[in-house]
UniProtKB/TrEMBL annotation:
Residues 38-119 form the Saposin B-type domain. Residues 1-25 form the signal peptide. Its EC number is 3.1.1.77. InterPro entries: AOAH, AOAH_Saposin_N, GDSL, Saposin-like, SaposinB_dom, SGNH_hydro_sf. GO terms for molecular function: acyloxyacyl hydrolase activity; calcium ion binding. The lineage of its organism: Eukaryota, Metazoa, Chordata, Craniata, Vertebrata. SUPFAM superfamilies: Saposin, SGNH hydrolase. This is Acyloxyacyl hydrolase. Its main location: cytoplasm. The gene is AOAH.
Length: 576
């Protein structure tokens, strides 16, 4: 009965997990700091309480009923539903009292101490301040819950993962994030038969998980006469002439894999707006939540570089991987998304070792280096001192390239991708309503940015700010860093790969999207107001593909004349 806290629980779990990813997207190094953790707890609380409030409004129900509704929407997996009910049980009665007394989510969360204003710190709020003074309103709210027993529960700093039944799954997620290798991988070849927790959503599915000499991307062992050693679905002999199919269809076709070294944008960080928009919320809304949580809120299986599933939006473009596969079916399953939320030129060294390529046994690869934001983006109030300098970038990237040179098979290609000019974010979004603000026209992106910035959990306080000087400064640094990458590509040489540089052509994407009748704001993730969304990701992939095809066709290899024969004999080659 007393279940209104489902929502809060869900929200907290969602928030804690998502916000941790978000936080790390902001500033990986700082993710363990207390202020971050407090900030995320606050954001989480405000989001959940807002959703509860809006669900009551949309369904004309009580707050109690609204909390129960939210919990009922959540899947049982990962104990999401249970956690939700537990939270309702813990905090529901206080939330009911406060919301019914007309307090908004900011006031509720400050009263319940999920948000804290420390001495000397500004007051962080998502909604406009109450008409009566903040101090007065907060005091009034505190009186309402004064005798409540729930105030004894810990708030910020308390981690959802400390709940005993969540500890195990938290541990799993943590481990796969830390190592960026599959959690389930019987033969330890870094390829998995399990989709999430860094499994085949991130790199080609292992077709034999009890043999570490069998994995996507390797050169066929003895022409794959007896087994499919490289998981591309091609093996055996043609009964007509006894020639092995790998030899017949793939020899001389120059197979190659695609590897992305990226950040949250490359991994396709995405929080579906249905998770926040009360008016659209239904029993189906949270269906993908467990999958998303175990993928760190990333959707690499639908990303522009390594995605193998079709886009959910109506866009026909394919990922770079699917284009390479279409060009040469021998490339089937040869993709690796080595990306991490919060990744930058600096912290890539922590997880680049998760890359799998054997210099002697495997096919060459195309590596796209796309650290597009975190060298200039962080959540600090003054982000400038923490931005990467051009000198530092030069040395970080050289370190990465040296690592690649000692791990990539000869004949590989590396493309350094530039940084975008993020000023279009503020310019195109600040006046628009955030999904949370659409019902009552009360939360704009400007408000969201300022709330996140105030809590120091903004994914990019240099661009997501009303301070034009700061936005310009951030763009200038991004441009300097792009120039540095270009300089590296034109002046440095490596024995095992050719090196190229390409601009991050967001302006070209916007123009392309306009030509199709779209608006620039439709290219940004609606919930975080920061990441390129699925459409943008696929348009960028198309843009990159076309340029490479035009300028450096050798990177993509030849069209395989046997593609249709491969389809005839092997169908979908075992799928993905
Ligand atoms: Ca394996
Ligand atoms: Ca294997
Ligand atoms: Ca094969």
């Amino acid at each position: 009965m007393n279940s209104p806290w489902k929502a809060l629980l869900a929200a907290r779990l969602l928030l804690l997990l998502s916000l941790h990813s978000w936080a790390s997207a902001v500033s990986y190094i700082d993710q363990h700091s207390t202020s971050h953790s407090n900030g995320h707890t606050c954001v989480g609380c405000v989001l959940v309480v807002s959703v509860v409030e809006q669900l009551a409004q949309v369904h004309n129900s009580t707050i109690q009923a609204s909390m129960e509704r939210l919990c009922s929407y959540l899947p049982k997996k990962l104990f999401l539903k249970t956690t939700c009910y537990l939270m309702v049980h813990k905090f529901g009665s206080d939330i009911i009292k406060l919301l019914e007394a007309g307090m908004n989510a900011d006031v509720v969360c400050h009263t319940l101490e999920f948000c804290k204003q420390n001495t000397g710190q500004p007051l962080c709020h998502l909604y406009l301040l109450p008409r009566e003074s903040w101090k007065f309103t907060l005091e009034k709210a505190r009186q309402i819950v004064k005798k409540s027993s729930t105030m004894q529960y810990p708030r910020s700093g308390s981690n959802i993962c400390s709940l005993p039944f969540l500890a195990k799954i938290c541990q799993k997620i943590k481990l796969s994030i830390t190592n960026s290798v599959p959690y389930k991988d019987m033969d330890s070849d870094k390829y998995s038969v399990f989709p999430t927790l860094r499994g085949y959503h991130w790199r080609g599915r292992d077709c034999n998980d009890s043999d570490k000499t069998v994995y996507p991307g390797r050169r066929p062992d003895n022409w794959d006469i007896h087994r499919d050693s490289n998981c591309n679905g091609i093996w055996g002999k043609d009964p007509k002439d006894e020639i092995p199919y790998e030899k017949k269809f793939c020899e001389g076709s120059q197979p190659r894999g695609i590897i992305l070294l990226g950040d949250s944008a490359g991994a396709h960080f995405h929080i579906p707006p249905e998770w926040l928009a009360a008016s659209q919320m239904s029993l189906n809304s949270f269906f993908s939540l467990p999958m998303a949580i175990t993928n760190e809120l990333d959707w690499p299986q639908r990303s522009g570089v390594t995605g193998f599933l079709d886009a959910t939006s109506r866009i026909e473009e394919k990922s770079i991987y699917l284009r390479l596969r279409r060009r040469n079916h021998c490339n089937h399953r040869d993709y690796q998304n080595i990306s991490r939320n919060g990744a930058s030129s600096h912290n890539l060294e922590e997880f680049i070792k998760s890359l799998s390529r054997n210099q002697l046994l495997d096919h060459p690869a195309i590596v796209i280096y796309a650290m597009i934001g975190n060298d200039v983006c962080n959540g600090q109030t003054d982000p400038v001192p923490k931005m990467t300098t051009p000198e530092k970038l030069y040395s970080n990237v050289m370190q990465t390239l040296k690592y690649l040179n000692s791990h990539l098979p000869n004949g590989s290609h590396v493309i350094l991708y530039g940084l975008p000019d993020g000023t279009f974010l503020w310019d195109n979004l600040h006046n628009r309503y955030h999904p949370l603000g659409q019902l009552n026209k009360d939360v704009t992106y400007a408000q969201l940015y300022s709330f996140l910035g105030c809590l120091q959990v903004s994914p990019c306080s240099g661009w997501l700010t009303s301070n034009k000087t700061l936005r310009t400064l951030t763009s200038e640094r991004a441009e300097q860093l792009s120039k540095t990458l270009k300089k590296i590509a034109t002046s440095e040489k490596f024995t095992n790969f050719n090196l190229f540089y390409m601009d991050f052509a967001f302006q070209e994407i916007i123009e392309e999207w306009r030509r199709r009748g779209g608006q620039p704001w439709q290219l940004i993730e609606p919930v975080d107001g920061f990441h390129p969304n699925e459409v943008a990701s696929f348009l960028l992939a198309e843009n990159l593909w076309k340029k490479v095809q035009l300028q450096w066709p050798q990177v993509l290899g030849k069209e395989n004349p046997f593609n249709s024969q491969i389809e005839q004999v092997f169908g979908d080659q075992g799928g993905h």
